[in-house]
Fold this sequence. Notes:
The chain is an alpha+beta fold. It has eleven helices and 17 strands. A hairpin with a 2-residue loop joins strand 9 (196-203) and strand 10 (206-214).
Amino acid sequence: MSDPPQASVGSDAAAVDEGRLEELIIEAQTALPFELAALADRCAAALGLDSALIYLVDLQQRLFIPLDEAMEPLSVADSSAGWAYRTISPRVVDADDGVTIWVPLVDGAETLGVLAVRTSSPDGVRMRRSRMLAYLFAMLITSKRAYSDWLAARIRTAAMGLPAEMLRAFLPPRTIGSRRCVSTAVLEPAYDIAGDAFDHSVVKNVLHTMILDSMGHDLASGLTTSVAMAAARNTRRGGGDLADVVGSVDQALARWLPDHFCTGVLCRLDAVTGVLRWVNCGHPAPLLIRSERVVHGALDSPPQPPIGLAGELAPASRQVHETTLEPGDQILLYTDGVVEARDANGVEFGLDRFTDFIIRSSAAGQRPAEVLRLLIHALLDHQRHRLRDDASILLFEWHPL
């Protein structure tokens, strides 16, 4: 029996070489990360496109780093590639003998970078194929970066300290979510963090979020936060509720690191009903942003001690608080290094400036991840690019179907 005929398209685009494309997709399963640049180019040719080049955003989201090591980085702030990344929309730019289509590399809710596709014209068929190629390579990059030191090193622009190296191994993707909720976070200083950390996870229709701030600024601080995150995940994955999760972190730190503790806020959002439950352990209160304003005191709660206190200082139990969100509500978790960052004259960045920045950016139509990218850069600029304390921000929002 002869092979089925190759699929073809209209005269406005070259036919897809399905056999060749199948070979390349199979090859992609075992391709090493440094081979992805050449593989993207060959996949583009099989789709009737001229070429494709992968750019990944660096840790601080200031530069796009090409996987082709012969190419130069691009700016996120003032390039067509940056526009596509910030808006999660393709951008078409005229080029010699055709156009360049900048397509965001999106896997789930996380944007990893951009794909530069060169082709003769931006007709509907080529635009669709460019998006398909971007989706494919976003998934490939996500699957391979978990074990690739090369990819991890490629997106760095400075040497990383040992505490930061340890802690970043525990951090989840910067942005996660579903159709009902999105959570996104940033953490600075990117290469010298020690005690701050965030975590977020989706379990069916439930979003779990957490932000932690460990005492000190050394390797022991990072170890404290890492143990806390591991204990929380272990209990969460075992089916424990919010009180169980906090209790397990208390017990783990008291047992393994009895001289260390951390403050933190842990949240659980039912993305179907909007019911939010949270526990605040000696940390700045979460903020509720509704209809472009902060609802002051909405998530305040009686003070509870930090996590990990042993002996007589340990709390008998943790108080879990509950409220119901409204569609479009945003919840903001942060560490004190955000509002306490000072400029050269000693002026704090401050809570009002912090919340006003988020409200204004969100009102201007910026997506949550872009809001936090701009905010953390504003914070670094305020303190002349060098934070004296770790600064972590996590923002999640609820959009029921």
